[in-house]
Amino acid sequence: MDGDRLEIDGGVMEGGGQILRVATALSCLLGLPLRVRRIRAGRSQPGLRPQHLSGLEMIRDLCDGQLEGGEIGSTEITFTPGKIKGGTHIADTKTAGSVCLLMQVAMPCVLFAASPSELRLRGGTNAEMAPQIDYTVMVFKPIIEKFNLTFDCDIKRRGYYPQGGGEVIVRISPVKQLSPVNLTERGTVTKIHGRAFVAGALPIKLAKDMASAAVRCIRKEIRDLYVNIQTVREADNQAFGTGSGIIIVAETSTGCLFAGSSLGKRGKNSDRVGIEAAEMLLGNLRHGGAVDDYLQDQLIIFMALANGVSKVKSGPITLHTQTAIHFAEQLTKAKFTVTKSEDEDSTKDTYLIECQGMGMINTNM
Predict the structure, then answer these.
(1) Measured between alpha carbons, how far is 22 from 40 in angstroms, rounded to an integer?
(2) What is the pLDDT of residue 1?
(3) Which of the residues are catalytic?
(4) For 92-96, 273-277, 310-314, 339-343, which range has the lowest pLDDT when averaged over its residues?
(5) How many angstroms separate the CA atoms of 51 and 23, rounded?
(6) What angle is formed at CA 353 by the lines to CA 350 and CA 355, rounded to 5 degrees?
(7) 245 within 8 A of 261, measured Cβ to Cβ
(8) Spatial distance between the Cα atoms of 246 and 255, rounded to a whole number of angstroms
(9) Which of 129, 146, 278, 299 is the least buried, fewest Cβ under 10 Å from its Cβ?
(10) Distance of alpha carbon 158 from alpha carbon 195, whole angstroms
């Protein structure tokens, strides 16, 4: 603490933009003034990139806060939060920066606003190094709503690397409190479905090749389930630029969801894209957890805010998750424990993440 301003080292552990997202969202929610130093020190291009800056500006605006050091390349910011308000909030990366990462920083905050919010997020919808918007809709949304919240995600236009140009509108109603979750029962896989897409100048044949390669790969391990992968050519008026990719989701008998995804790029064989997504999905199914590797860290802030004990069974704990836990504990009164799961086939690399949440209350309701 510096006076009453919390000091955060943005270069520890994962050392990327996630530290900034978790810390500023919690700062906004808890009314804690913050200084973040060494922003993204672990990255090849340290400091704020356009998507991080637009996320920070959205958080500043949605709580009438103050932000110093908010420019591209800045490695230190100070943030003083105000009162969270509902209404329409706009963030535009003006690049292919991920709209899903913008959503990650804003969503926990507006859940504790006084009135419903509409987030208009502009940038890349299917970007490297971030969840695809399809993952957000097909996996993140149904699982996160188990915390007793609801939101609506309307994909107005898809945008791809390098220009972005996509737009997503997220509508969220505030909650009084978040309920804890119990995601420990894996169940058996009952359904595998997905979506392979092309947009812009690319032929539908690429989507079909991605889907076929993915199905062949899954068949080697899972023979008795029909794998239904839709192939789609995005409508020109609903997509900006040229892009391709695939997402495959497995559903289980207990409502768990796991995904694998991959994006096409110049010079990358479409079979390779399909196989990458299938292998990612199969890897997520092998570890015996009840969430996939990409949902793991996104759950941490909600577990920390919830009222009661949340339990999540997962595969190996990722560095992103360890980082989210570290900062959630540093800023809130939540307590996390991570233990190796003993209750089944011990050859599996399965862990139990437990959290006694802080029980954040929306004082506006």
Answers:
(1) 13
(2) 47
(3) 320
(4) 339-343
(5) 16
(6) 170
(7) yes
(8) 22
(9) 129
(10) 14
Rounded to the nearest angstrom, the gap between the alpha carbon of residue 45 and the centroid of all alpha carbons in its chain is 22
**Is 157 exposed, middle or buried, given 0-12, 13-18 or 19+ CB atoms closer than 10 A?**
middle
Give residue 65's identity as a one-letter amino acid code.
Answer: G
Q: How far is CA 351 from CA 57, 186, 309, 324, 331, in A?
A: 36, 13, 16, 16, 24
Q: How far is CA 174 from the centre of its chain?
A: 19
Using alpha carbons, select from 181, 69, 67, 51 the residue that is nearest to residue 105.
Answer: 51
Separation between Cα atoms, residue 120 and residue 154, nearest integer Å:
10
Written as six digits, the tokens of 162 are: 């390098």
The residues near 269 (Cβ < 8 Å, ≥ 6 apart) are none
Lookup: tokens for 328: 């959630």
How confident is the model over 6-37, as pLDDT tens digits? 999 999 998 889 999 999 999 999 999 999 99
Structure tokens at 77: 């910011």
DSSP string, 171-233: EE---S-PPP-EE-----EEEEEEEEEEETT--HHHHHHHHHHHHHHHHTT--SS-EEEEEEE
Calculate mean pLDDT across residues 90-98: 94
